[in-house]
């Protein structure tokens, strides 16, 4: 007979500590949200106090000055195309390496994994030179292609682990039924990759949407600026327009907060699936 679960002091202390940690991480969000509705003077006088009145003009000015619709569209365009290309390229590469583990394929896979330890700062100058030669500096396409390379290794690593758990008998049955190798991949293998795809979509969306450095060095034309670049313009070296910068931060992080809340359950499920090796 199993003992009934009892609420112990140890469990209480764990829950109390967890609650305090959560509240600690929520403190910056409190300051951002509360002060985004204050005037510049009230922010400097008492940043921790609740606003005496809601200054909605802050949001209207921030919306206009950052060209929110345009910058949101730029961020969405770059994020969606980047993730679509990353998933396509990495899944095909991981499938090839997993199903045909030749010495050359294993070497390429090892080389790709080893590239994950190279800091982005080391690659900045060669990347800019290469994009200049390809006439891609100042265009979103240059950013998108760069993301293909930077996120390929991590994606292929997770997909390779997941594919090891997919039985080959399923693919062989497709070939017997008349499917080509391409048909087997897109009609049989890709649908089975949906759990790990969901994980990669979430992780890469958060990384690409919030990325500042790569768009900053590539997108020289302000027409193509993403949301993080527009946020940066409110933080000068000598002056900071807090009454406008904080609403901009709220507008910038809101899409990702909503996105993460709705899809966070897929993260653990996808990573756990990718960790299984058959």
Give an overview in words.
By secondary structure, the chain is mostly helical. The protein has a domain at 69-226 and 270-275: MetI-like fold. The chain contains 14 helices and no strands. It has helices at residues 9-35, 40-45, 57-65, 68-99, 103-114, 120-133, 140-163, 168-176, 181-192, 194-209, 213-218, 227-232, 242-263, 265-275. Helix 10 (194-209) packs antiparallel against helix 13 (242-263) and helix 10 (194-209) crosses helix 14. It is globular. The two termini are 35 Å apart. The model is unreliable at 274-278 (pLDDT under 50).
Give a topology summary.
Blueprint: H1 9-35, H2 40-45, H3 57-65, H4 68-99, H5 103-114, H6 120-133, H7 140-163, H8 168-176, H9 181-192, H10 194-209, H11 213-218, H12 227-232, H13 242-263, H14 265-275
Helix pairs in contact: 3-13, 4-7, 4-10, 5-7, 7-10, 7-14, 8-9, 10-13, 10-14
Q: Outline of this structure?
A:
The chain is mostly helical. It has helices spanning 9-35, 40-45, 57-65, 68-99, 103-114, 120-133, 140-163, 168-176, 181-192, 194-209, 213-218, 227-232, 242-263, 265-275.
Percentage of residues in DSSP E strands: under 5%
Question: What is the helical fraction, as a range of percent?
Answer: over 70%
Poorly predicted sequence stretches spanning 5 or more consecutive residues: 274-278
The topology string of helices and strands comes to HHHHHHHHHHHHHH
Q: What radius of gyration results from the CA coordinates?
A: 24 Å
Q: Give the structural class.
A: mainly alpha
- Please identify the top-level CATH class of the domain at 69-226 and 270-275: Mainly Alpha
The helix tally amounts to 14
Calculate the terminal CA-CA distance, rounded to whole Å: 35 Å
Q: What would you give as the CATH superfamily of the domain at 69-226 and 270-275? A: MetI-like
Number of strands: 0
CATH architecture of the domain at 69-226 and 270-275: Orthogonal Bundle
Largest sheet: none
Question: Within the CATH hierarchy, at the fold level, what is the topology of the domain at 69-226 and 270-275?
Answer: MetI-like fold
Integer average pLDDT: 84
Shape: globular
